[in-house]
Amino acid sequence: MELNFGRLATIIKKEFVENRKTLLLRALLLIGSMVILSQIMGILHSNVYNKEWEILNLVESRDPALQPMLVIFIIGAFFVSAFSASFLFENMTSKTKRLSTLMLPASNAEKFIARFTIFVLGFFVLYFVSCAIAEFSRYIVLQSIYPDSPNVHLITPSAIIADLDIDFTSKDWLWAFTIFIGAFLFNQSLFGLGSAVWPKNSFIKTFGAIWAISITYQLLTSILIQLFDFSDAHPNSNLLLWLLTGFLYIGTIFNWVLAYYRFKESEIIQRM
Questions:
Q1: Which of 37, 122, 203, 231 is the right S-S partner for 86, CB 3.0 to 4.6 Å?
Q2: Which residues of the chain have pLDDT under 50?
Q3: Who's near 187: CB < 8 A, 6+ residues apart?
Q4: Running DSSP on this structure, what letter comes out for residue 92?
Q5: Which of 37, 44, 58, 71 is nearest to 151 (CA)?
Q6: pLDDT tens-digit profile of 140-177?
Q7: Distance CA 29, CA 51 (A)
Q8: Could you give the 3-state DSSP secondary structure of residue 181?
């Protein structure tokens, strides 16, 4: 069965309608969590908002909570993307759900893309929306409490760029940004693959598998360092960056392709 965009749109709509309560609950939970965290940041910096902080005011639109909020945003992006990707194949966790998925008159690619659109792309957009809502709520609350404070600012992308002093023409920054995006996508793809392998309790099982692999890698690395002398080694930094970047992006594609074929295989197994 070929990929049909009209049918794909119908499947996406069907997924939204059938899972609207669950999706809405998760969306509200995410937005609520981000709002609470943003308000906590406001409380922790209340002593700064209550007085003038001349050092911060040297930077335009600089809020004392900017850096903590940025850290929360980055950590939250990794966590939320992994958590949402782990729900990718939750429609295969029970016999009833499996039968419903198998009986759906659509190709495997359409079923996969529909779930990918909602639980990967959709939650990615939702995360940005929840962060914006959380920041606006923090700003409004602080403005109402400290209307005359010069340190209450709305944290915007331009404020973040100014605070980090980002030079978009810098080679080091481009490498750091490329590797960061690659690590983010690779992390998400691992949990998507884990969902295809373990539909039930996918997040916990995938996290455990990644943790076990990481510990094994660290042990093997420490053993190799003790067995061999690397003191005279002078690795090429550019080569290492290219290898790391290639591993992250190629690994991301490989994981999603493997997840798709694992999904197809699971359908065949359930039919037998």
A1: 203
A2: 1, 54-61, 269, 271-272
A3: 78, 81, 82
A4: G
A5: 58
A6: 988 888 777 777 778 877 777 776 777 777 787 888 88
A7: 34
A8: helix
